[in-house]
Design a protein that fits this description.
By secondary structure, this protein is an alpha/beta fold. The chain has eight helices and eight strands. The strands form two sheets. It has a six-stranded mixed sheet. The protein has a two-stranded antiparallel sheet with strand order 2-3. It comes from Aspergillus flavus (strain ATCC 200026 / FGSC A1120 / IAM 13836 / NRRL 3357 / JCM 12722 / SRRC 167). This is DUF899 domain protein. InterPro entries: DUF899_thioredox (IPR010296).
């Protein structure tokens, strides 16, 4: 395939090339052949769906780990300071996205921004006893300005104090399981026990984030697919830059 720094231009070059025209011409078939090929493919899709359902069940059955003294992990919001347990907002479950926007950054990470563009109206999650928040190391004022640019409405808080608490804990030999493995971005899930205790139940990062991305899932159903040339999600723009 013809490569190019601009994914759209690269794909246009490929489709207009002799190779691209020949490859697409080879896929033009009769209605009967079309239905036969798609029936075969549907069987593979159904098998993949069953496998994903089994993975989700296994994920829910993974062992969990307590977050000791969870209230020492603090987050700044426009309404003041909140602790990790308070981020549950009275619900049993909490999903947290660690977003790459640091104190010195002028803009949020392109890939993180693409992920967050897919966060839905939270009322569906909340109806299932689940809260969602995003956090970043930037001060809350910078975070609020970035939310204004992107139009996001989900809670987005400053985690700088939590990062400092992590550092102190690690100096004492504590293992922080919910700190992103690469130190920057990722998603983690927490559960709140009947006595208010907090447990870390799951984390993912990198391509594990693709489960969130409806844009990818829709493009995967099209002939041109994701139309990416390296760098994955960074091929997209921030939503306000289109």
């Amino acid at each position: 395939m013809v490569g190019h720094n601009d994914p759209k231009t690269g794909w246009n070059e490929y489709l207009n090339s002799k190779q691209g025209r020949l490859e697409r011409a080879d896929t033009i078939v009769s209605p009967t052949e079309f239905q036969k090929a798609h029936s075969t493919h549907l069987a593979h899709e159904k098998a993949a769906t069953h496998h994903l359902q089994a993975l989700a069940s296994a994920r829910r059955s993974l062992p969990i780990v307590p977050v000791p003294d969870a209230s020492r992990f603090k987050f700044d919001t426009i309404d003041g300071e909140k602790t990790l347990p308070e981020l549950f907002a009275g619900r049993k479950q909490l999903i947290m996205y660690h977003f790459m926007l640091g104190p010195e950054d002028e803009k949020g990470c392109v890939g993180c921004s693409f992920c967050m563009d897919h966060i839905p109206d939270l009322r569906h999650l909340e109806s299932r006893d689940t809260s969602f928040v995003a956090v970043a190391r930037a001060p809350v004022g910078k975070i609020e300005e970035y939310k204004r640019l992107t139009g996001w409405e989900f809670p987005f808080y400053s985690s700088e104090k939590t990062h400092r608490a992590w550092e102190e804990a690690e100096k004492g030999g504590e293992v922080i399981t919910w700190k992103p493995g690469n130190g920057y971005f990722g998603l983690c899930v927490f559960f709140r026990g009947d006595e208010g205790e907090v447990f870390h139940t799951y984390s993912t990062t990198d391509r594990g984030m693709e489960i969130l991305l409806g844009t990818y899932h829709l493009l995967d159903m099209t002939p041109l697919g994701r139309q990416e040339v390296g760098n994955g999600m960074n091929n997209f723009r921030r939503i306000y830059e289109y």
